[in-house]
TrEMBL record:
Protein name: UDP-N-acetylglucosamine 2-epimerase (non-hydrolyzing)
Taxonomic lineage of the native organism: Bacteria, Bacillati, Chloroflexota, Anaerolineae, Anaerolineales
Stored NCBIfam families: wecB (TIGR00236)
Gene Ontology molecular function, alphabetical: UDP-N-acetylglucosamine 2-epimerase activity
Entry EC no(s): 5.1.3.14
CDD domains from the UniProt entry: GTB_UDP-GlcNAc_2-Epimerase (cd03786)
Record's keyword terms, sorted: Isomerase
Length: 376
């Protein structure tokens, strides 16, 4: 019997993190011929994760270019990926999430009549502009997908409402929890220890607030409001909380963040962090402020109260569970809600003790098993 040929395609760090446990499982499963292709939509940040999880791509399109538009990136992916699909003819293409790579790879596979498995399927905000362009990317991938690997029952219900047959949906949990379990077992890198020591963040000492904000919908006035809120929190909790903000390299983020927060006491601005130190900082954080999707899931699993710097989230399970709270980019709301959590132990504990709805660390096993069962 011929092996099942599976091509996993991804291009950004978040995709690589969530695909890593699946790629590892595929590589060690009898009856599967697994190949990995990266578009390198994000070059340096992707490479960090590949090294961390010891993944060696079979093909690297290396498509990252300075300041390229979404249309230019899409054109490059279609142009360079199509001949690969024509030559390889895999039985399945696996894509994860909602990036431009996902959109284009799913469509390119569809054009070649290759089956598509969509991991982290069914996430929806209901607003095509938030997050942009991710909401449309994942909806489009969902239209062409042949198997939908939904992380939660809520995601499954979204797909059913859109007319996806129940037989084509598998609720698997989110593989980010699989990855998080692996990384949490690794020792924290020395730079994390030295940074926390330098800031006085030790057991029983100052608390750590971790901030990540970089999404397109927060460009302009929203990111400035987030920065003003952070400056106010740093002043209000001076000597009690140290804030660490790894700043995305996009100039739309770099300029306002460094202008507003560059000399603010108790705020430490860092370059983007690799995944291992970022996870260990999340583990030590008392509070997370983020507009990231993946960090909403990770912080939930780590039981760290998290304020989401967005008006809507495609992860409402975390809000319903109580560990996430939407505050948008509203300066007053951010200051009020962060202050409440940092002052009120009961409010803090209510969020910190919430259950994790995003999975049990066995999503990769379920995804690979579903592929094998479908082929049987």
């Amino acid at each position: 019997m011929k092996p099942l040929r599976v091509l996993s395609i991804f291009g950004t760090r978040p995709e690589a993190v969530k695909m890593a446990p699946i790629v590892q499982r595929l590589a060690h499963t009898a009856g599967i011929d697994s190949k990995v292709l990266v578009t390198a939509q994000h070059r340096e940040m992707l490479d960090q994760v590949l090294d961390l999880f010891e993944i060696h791509p079979d093909l690297d399109l290396n498509l990252m270019r300075p300041d390229q538009s979404l249309a230019q990136l899409s054109a490059q992916i279609f142009t360079h990926l199509d001949p690969v699909l024509e030559k390889m003819r895999p039985d399945w293409v696996l894509v994860q999430g909602d990036t431009t790579t996902v959109l284009c790879a799913a469509l390119a596979a569809f054009y070649r009549r290759i089956r598509v498995g969509h991991i982290e399927a069914g996430l929806r905000t209901g607003d095509k502009w938030q997050p942009f362009p991710e909401e449309i990317n994942r909806r489009t991938a969902g239209v062409v997908a042949d198997l939908h690997f939904a992380p939660t029952e809520n995601s499954r219900q979204n797909l059913l409402r859109e007319g996806v047959p129940d037989a084509r949906i598998r609720v698997t949990g989110n593989p980010v929890i699989d990855a998080l379990h692996q990384i949490a077992e690794m020792p924290a890198p020395p730079e994390v220890y030295h940074l926390l020591q330098a800031l006085g963040i030790q057991e029983g000492g100052r608390r750590l607030g971790l901030v990540t904000a970089h999404r397109r919908e927060n460009f302009g006035e929203p990111i400035e409001a987030i920065c003003r809120a952070l400056a106010r929190l740093a002043a209000e909790f001076a000597g009690e909380v140290e804030w660490i903000y790894p700043v995305h390299l996009n100039p739309h983020i770099q300029e306002p963040v460094r202008r507003i927060l560059g000399s603010t006491p108790h705020v430490t601005l860092l370059p983007p962090l690799e995944y291992l130190p970022l996870v260990h900082l999340q583990r030590r954080a008392a509070l997370v402020l983020t507009d990231s999707g993946g960090i909403q899931e990770e912080a939930t699993a780590l039981k760290v109260p998290t304020l989401v710097l967005r008006e809507v989230t495609e992860r409402p399970e975390g809000v319903a569970a109580g560990v996430l709270k939407l505050v948008g980019a509203d300066e007053e709301r951010i200051v009020r809600e962060a202050g409440r959590l940092l002052r009120d132990p009961a409010a803090y504990e209510a969020m910190a003790s919430a259950p994790n709805p995003f999975g049990d660390g066995h999503a990769a096993e379920r995804i690979v098993q579903a592929l094998l069962e479908d082929a049987a």
